[in-house]
Amino acid sequence: MLLVKEGHLSELTELFDRYHVPLYNFFLRLTMDRATSEDLTQSLFYRIIRYRQSYQPGQGTFRSWVYRMARNIHADFCKQQKQAPQRPIDPDEADLSLADHSAGYAEADYQRLDEALALLPSEQREILVLSRYQGLKYEEISKIKDISVSAIKVQVYRAIRQLRSLYFKQS
Fold this sequence. Notes:
There is one protein chain. With 171 residues, the chain is mainly alpha-helical. It contains 8 helices and no strands. It has helices at 2-5, 12-31, 34-50, 62-81, 107-119, 122-133, 138-145, 149-169. The protein is globular and about 55 Å long. The termini are far apart.
């Protein structure tokens, strides 16, 4: 990213190759729509180029910087839509691998989990997507959301508790 910041825009190719799939999946889990997720991912990489001078390596990792930017893009999208999308994911429409299918879970279990995730409030869904699906550490999420690590832990705990409740109500 430092080379991109210096004007070597061709170096963005490596960042794109490394981050476009995880970022697309981040948007997909938040919007529940493939086309919208593709558009938001494209917008994000445009913003990376446009705001490359704002990247400060001393203030955190590139990953936390890019996810903060992704979060802002999603918030802008929600403001434009005047609501957060709440439609359940159609498993045929989205390719969302949640875990190792060889662990003995039925496809219906994954579908129920996706539906329960879609029913969560936007903030809770976002924190779970960042921590569980994107694999970000609490410290990174803390930088992205600009709140303490302990507050992140509390939010994750509450979101998991709510997800568990929604998941088992569907049984």
